[in-house]
Design brief:
It is a single chain. By secondary structure, the chain is mainly β. It has one domain. 9% of the residues lie in helices and 41% in strands. It contains four helices and 20 strands. It has a ten-stranded antiparallel beta sheet. Strands 4, 9, 11, 14, 17, 18 and 19 form a seven-stranded antiparallel beta sheet that branches. It has a three-stranded antiparallel beta sheet with strand order 1-2-3, with no helix packed on it. The longest helix is centred in the last third of the chain and has 12 residues.
Length: 355
């Protein structure tokens, strides 16, 4: 496996023997850390391409929950991440949780965990179980005639398919169930952490404007186009923007210019259900049901990262339930002109201003 970043090397040394790696037929690799259920590496074969994910300097600390990469949480955030005194906290039952490596084969990596969360508004506890499967994905440009011309041999590639299953059982008495009925939900929430020096590319139907979940200040150069939104990340503005399920196309990307000649692109594909319930809500709007795609920029306050997030439709927590979510990650690195062409073809929106 190619040389890794210093932070990831340190993390691997601390968790020696706990990583699971899987190689695709094209020579690319996946790197999964069972602790926290993280996909930490997409490693192109035959390439010195940088790893796409953000890895914090504190990642090697044994008491630091956030090791970067791609993770799964449960939302709504304001229902499961606030304590009884109204203080924000990451529930330890969810992250790092009690994830275990269930199996490793030549085709896939399987992880599993379970725990209990408390829905604040209804005061109802739920028992949940999450299962995740990771497997390599071939380069989609090589499988589709319309994109064969974009398969530049100087562009490196790695990809991953992730299947996530959520099962829940309501706990508590009948009064708790009654309090939750009609307004208590939970859903899978996928969070991809990336270095905050790139631009989020969010294709939309109809040039929709995002809802501001929270913000110190709005991104200064946010651009809304008929085909999507370009959201520059980095700088001192901390913000989180949200696009609903009617506007979301089921695909988004993040492009970084590493030098005058080299860029990277990561694209995520996922399912959108316009009639589904997406219950993550901004402060003061608990009845909002539209948060499907979200972009977060930390404003340099937590380590200089951006997050590209998507939500799966929710389950009601007052009865047993099960849901399955499947997504795909495609990572490209190479000449900037080639990367821009791939982004525009796969996302259906311009990457930069044209003369």
């Amino acid at each position: 496996m190619r040389r890794l970043t210093t932070e990831l090397e340190t993390l691997m040394n601390r968790h020696h023997g706990e990583f699971a790696a899987l190689q695709g037929i094209d020579g690319s690799s996946l790197l999964v850390l069972p602790k926290g259920g993280r996909l930490l590496g997409l490693v192109p074969g035959r390439s010195d391409a940088p790893l796409p994910f953000w890895t914090p300097a504190k990642a090697a600390s044994p008491d630091h929950w956030n090791v970067g990469g791609d993770r799964t949480w449960i939302s709504p955030e304001l229902e499961y991440f606030m304590d009884s005194e109204g203080q924000y906290r990451v529930p330890g039952s969810l992250d790092p949780g009690n994830w275990t490596l269930e199996s490793l084969s030549a085709e896939e990596i399987r992880l599993g965990m379970d725990g209990v969360l408390h829905h604040i508004t209804s005061a109802m506890p739920i028992q949940f179980q999450i299962k995740k499967r990771f497997s390599p994905l071939p380069n989609p440009l090589l499988h589709n005639g319309s994109t064969a011309s974009l398969a530049d041999p100087s562009v490196s590639y790695a990809g991953c398919e992730t299947t996530t299953e959520l099962s829940l059982e309501p706990l508590g008495n009948e009064d708790r169930h009654a309090a939750a009925e009609g307004n208590g939900y939970c859903n899978l929430w996928s969070i991809l952490q990336l270095p905050s020096d790139g631009e989020a590319l969010i294709p939309t139907f109809g040039g929709a404007r995002p809802l501001t979940m929270f913000a110190d200040s709005q991104p200064e150069t946010l651009e809304i186009l008929p085909s999507g939104a370009r959201i520059p990340c980095g700088g001192a503005a901390k913000f989180k923007l949200s696009f609903d399920a009617i506007a979301s196309t089921g695909r988004f990307g993040y492009i970084r210019c590493l030098s005058e000649d080299v860029s990277t692109l990561i694209i995520r594909q996922f399912a959108v259900h316009p009639a589904g319930i997406y219950p993550d809500y901004p402060p003061g709007q608990p009845s909002y049901r539209g948060s499907c795609v979200q972009v977060f920029n930390d404003g340099g306050q937590f380590g200089n990262f951006a997050e590209l997030e998507y939500h799966a439709p929710a389950l009601p927590i007052w009865k047993p339930g099960h849901s399955t979510d499947r997504s795909e990650l495609f990572y490209f690195s190479g000449p900037s002109s080639s990367i821009e062409r791939i982004a525009e073809r796969m996302l259906g929106m311009p990457v930069m201003e044209r003369e």
